[in-house]
């Protein structure tokens, strides 16, 4: 099993995916433990001096002016966790919760939060034991970070609250789950409750997972576009590299290169290459595929940079500085992540929208250049993929609604102390929904493109077309229960196998 070491320098994006999705084991590095001990000693000195410091000797939010006597400060931290674990709704997926916990370990390990190493180790123990706290969807406003979701995670450390089972179902008391794993609830000391919940870990975790998904899906969008263009007897000339060097957007050039390469060595493409009566220009959904998918790639590059900076950031509040100062910051505000998530959602929604336009064209007998209506050999009695396109159209409409930015929708909270919030959690939640919808849209295009190519027989399709037809295993014929067929196409497109086979045949996709 892979092992991820959390050091005083943090973790990488690939570490987050490995722990969240693949169950990688987590260990704390010696340098991280040393950094936490050093910052904790500063908090201990503050306790001795009885200085008023936010979150150590005062209340929280609008109660920041309330002094807390020393004998009640541990109680303060426990009360904070219980009161802030106030979320509602369906539980978040296990991969999101695991990403969030790892990123909170990362934050503590940087040595600016003033917690004992035992607190970070307790979170590591949850991950390694496979215990997933029940974290509801609603509760975070993205400032001060993801308070409610992180509080639900922290509550598990106290042996309170709920956890979900290994399949992500139900909810069960946390105490017995800890006991069954041989773990003991911890008791928090001053500053530690606040350090467990103040930060952008939930939205950052979702953004990192979304980045990984988008990178794969944008490549697969080139695959499905190429299949559709080939099936509709489109031209490969708009994708020649010299036409993209004159508009030097890097994502556009990468996407065009993919599509051009995927269309080579095709008997279908060769069948009309020298046909003077063939269309001089293809429709925008075909010809402009790399301009849209490429712009989405460039958007993904920007978002990846933002997430990378956040991975190197200290987002706690207050922060413990090496010179002994404990200072309040606004670094927990999720605006950078909220803006990035909204931007990527817009881009992904448009990749799906242009995909659906190609699907619609493939099914329309007046525009698909000689293919039968709805890609059924027996139209009338059979409806072929007609309703699959309805489904795609409905999903495009939903993605348009989801592409409306969440980050402009601030509402004041905490007695106007927290009077501007990022809505970064909401932005990343809906981004993941947009990307899941994109899987469905590309799957419908994959199915339509493969069936269109199969109907071009005896013409031999491209290598990618042959692979898609074979791996889908579903060819034009009498109507069948279509939902399982589309679901199988979804699984094939989302997984690594189809892309791996295509790349083995044509080379690595950009």
UniProtKB/TrEMBL annotation:
GO terms for molecular function: histidine ammonia-lyase activity. Its EC number is 4.3.1.3. The keyword Lyase applies. GO terms for cellular component: cytoplasm. The keyword Flavoprotein does not apply. One of its GO terms (biological process) is L-histidine catabolic process to glutamate and formamide. SUPFAM superfamilies: L-aspartase-like. Keywords: Histidine metabolism, Lyase. CDD domains: PAL-HAL. Pathway: Amino-acid degradation; L-histidine degradation into L-glutamate; N-formimidoyl-L-glutamate from L-histidine: step 1/3. Coiled coil: none annotated. It catalyses: L-histidine = trans-urocanate + NH4(+). Its main location: cytoplasm. It is found in: Cytoplasm. InterPro entries: Aromatic_Lyase (IPR001106), Fumarase/histidase_N (IPR024083), HutH (IPR005921), L-Aspartase-like (IPR008948), Phe/His_NH3-lyase_AS (IPR022313). Belongs to the PAL/histidase family. This is Histidine ammonia-lyase. The lineage of its organism: Bacteria, Bacillati, Actinomycetota, Actinomycetes, Micromonosporales.
């Amino acid at each position: 099993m892979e092992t991820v070491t959390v050091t005083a320098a943090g973790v990488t994006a690939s570490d987050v995916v490995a722990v969240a999705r693949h169950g990688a084991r987590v260990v704390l590095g010696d340098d991280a433990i040393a950094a936490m001990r050093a910052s904790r000693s500063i908090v201990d000195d503050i306790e001795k001096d009885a200085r008023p410091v936010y979150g150590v000797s005062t209340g929280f939010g609008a109660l920041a002016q309330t002094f807390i006597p020393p004998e009640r400060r541990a109680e303060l931290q426990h009360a904070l966790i219980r009161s802030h674990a106030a979320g509602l709704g369906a539980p978040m997926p296990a991969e999101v919760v695991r990403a969030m916990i790892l990123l909170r370990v990362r934050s503590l390990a940087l040595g600016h939060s003033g917690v004992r190493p035992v607190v970070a180790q307790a979170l590591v123990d949850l991950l390694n034991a496979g215990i997933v706290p029940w974290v509801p969807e609603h509760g975070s406003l993205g400032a001060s970070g993801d308070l409610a979701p992180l509080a639900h995670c922290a509550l598990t450390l106290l042996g309170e609250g709920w956890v979900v089972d290994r399949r992500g179902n139900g909810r069960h008391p946390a105490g017995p789950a800890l006991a069954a794993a041989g773990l003991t609830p911890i008791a928090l000391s001053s500053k530690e409750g606040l350090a467990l919940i103040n930060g952008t870990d939930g939205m950052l975790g979702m953004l990192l997972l979304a980045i990984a998904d988008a990178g794969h899906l944008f490549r697969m969008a080139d695959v499905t576009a190429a299949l559709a263009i080939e099936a509709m007897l489109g031209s490969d000339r708009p994708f020649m590299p010299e036409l993209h060097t004159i508009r030097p957007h890097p994502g556009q050039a990468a996407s065009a290169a993919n599509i051009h390469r995927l269309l080579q060595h095709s008997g279908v493409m060769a069948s009309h290459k020298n046909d003077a009566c063939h269309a001089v220009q293809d429709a925008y959904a075909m010809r402009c595929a790399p301009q849209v998918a490429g712009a989405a790639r460039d958007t993904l590059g920007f978002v990846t940079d933002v997430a990378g900076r956040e991975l190197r950031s200290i987002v706690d509040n207050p922060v413990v500085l090496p010179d002994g100062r404990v200072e309040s910051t606004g670094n927990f505000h999720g605006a950078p992540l909220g803006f990035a998530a909204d931007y990527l959602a817009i881009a992904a929604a448009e990749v799906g929208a242009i995909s659906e336009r190609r699907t619609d064209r493939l099914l329309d007998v007046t525009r698909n250049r000689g293919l039968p209506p709805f890609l059924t050999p027996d139209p009338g009695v059979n409806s072929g993929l007609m309703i699959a396109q309805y489904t795609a159209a409905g999903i495009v409409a939903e993605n348009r609604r989801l592409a409306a930015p969440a980050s402009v929708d601030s509402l004041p909270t905490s007695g106007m102390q927290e009077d501007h919030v990022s809505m970064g959690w909401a932005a990343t939640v809906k981004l993941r929904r947009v990307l899941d919808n994109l899987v469905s849209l590309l799957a419908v295009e994959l199915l339509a493109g493969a069936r269109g190519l199969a109907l071009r027989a005896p013409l031999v399709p491209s290598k990618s077309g042959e692979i898609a037809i074979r791996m889908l295993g579903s060819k034009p014929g009498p109507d069948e229960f279509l939902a399982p067929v589309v679901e199988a196409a979804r699984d094939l497109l989302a997984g690594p196998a189809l892309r791996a086979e295509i790349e083995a045949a044509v080379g690595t996709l950009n």
